[in-house]
Design a protein that fits this description.
Structural class: mainly alpha
Number of strands: 0
Strand content: under 5%
Number of domains: 1
Distance between the termini: 51 Å
Oligomer: single chain
Number of helices: 4
Length: about 130
């Protein structure tokens, strides 16, 4: 009979974590920063994909350097995707942009999931092709 997996560490079990390893709460907030980009499906024309990570980052950045770094990275990624999408939309008038828009949607989805998984493991993920504006 297989033994059940151990539950993830909680804030009360922070003494069991290696020094400098983010607590469960910090990791959760970092994951929320990355997954906040999915708000584009709820608020597509209100820049929800930028607002969600921005709000989380502004509220939680002072509490944890881990959340600060992940939030900044998630926000930079969403701003970069917005800039790339505007460029692809302009190129859609030449019919090239339609393919780029599809590639950007897949790029955004895949890398948000990867970053969320890495943040849940206590790592800071650096998105590729991201402009570091903040």
């Amino acid at each position: 009979m297989a033994t059940p997996p151990l539950p993830p560490a909680t804030d009360e079990e922070a003494d069991d974590l290696p020094p400098g390893f983010p607590t469960t709460s910090e990791r959760n907030w970092a994951v929320f920063c990355h997954l906040g980009g999915f708000a584009v499906y709820l608020l597509p024309f209100a820049f929800g994909h930028v607002l969600a990570p921005l709000v989380i980052w502004l509220v939680k950045r002072g509490e944890s350097p881990f959340v600060d770094e992940n939030g900044r990275e998630a926000l930079n990624f969403q701003i970069s995707v917005t800039i790339y999408t505007i460029g692809a939309a302009i190129l859609a008038f030449v019919l090239v942009g339609f393919a780029l828009l599809l590639v950007l949607a897949v790029y955004q989805f895949v890398f948000m999931v990867i970053a969320s998984v890495r943040a849940s493991q206590g790592e800071v993920y650096r998105y590729p092709l991201t402009l570091r504006l903040i």
